[in-house]
User: What shape does this take?
Amino acid sequence: MIRLKNEKQINGIRKSCQLLAEMFKYVLPLVQAGMTTYSIDELCKEFIIRHGGKPAWYSEGFSGAACISINDEVIHGIPSKKRKIENGDIVSIDVGIDLDGYISDSAHTIKVGKVSPAAEKLIDITKQCLEAGIAACKVGNRIGDISHAVYDIATKAGFGVVHEYCGHGVGFSVHEDPTIPNVPSRGANPRIQPGMVLAIEPMINIGIGDVLLEDDGWTVITADGSLSAHEEHTVAVFADYTEILTRMD
Assistant: This one.
């Protein structure tokens, strides 16, 4: 069931999203070669707690405040004291905050040092996919219009689109209806309505879109070992516009 939000509830989600945006503005410039993924997670956790929030992933049984995925890791990388960031890596950081019961969700892929031209293009196209998906997220369209917008840009660039994991509703819980595929689907295709709060999140691979689940039960990797990028914003739908709640600028 899709849970539409009223003005008061969207205001609460907006505050959570603004805090998440501020966290990213603080943390992302600090990420550098030599850091462990655990130390990045500690930066995220400390910021969230210091500002009165709680890491949202804890309620899902995840051990970190941030999912930190490197290179061929698509999503859900577990923070580790042994895993170090290296020059030339691309790093995806996915964080949610529970602030007074309202949930925000956002992810960004960043470059560490000098990366390959292919990695540069992948990150750029993934951002374009997110922008196109958000542009398609408006009253009168359907969820499938978001999927088509993401898929079309990625495939025209020659990249694979992850189909096993999707965007979703958010705000009261980490994952709510509707599911938002990044590929065209024959499944449920609800009309976009005012009051929807959605996490739109393209996951794009340089190679094929197929993925595998690691033995840790969380980390998702590309099936062919190619690089992957992940961009995500939480948005709120109003009658005449859609607001990006987790925008950093």
The domain at 7-244 is CATH 3.90.230.10 (Creatine Amidinohydrolase). The CA atoms of residues 57 and 174 lie 8 Å apart.
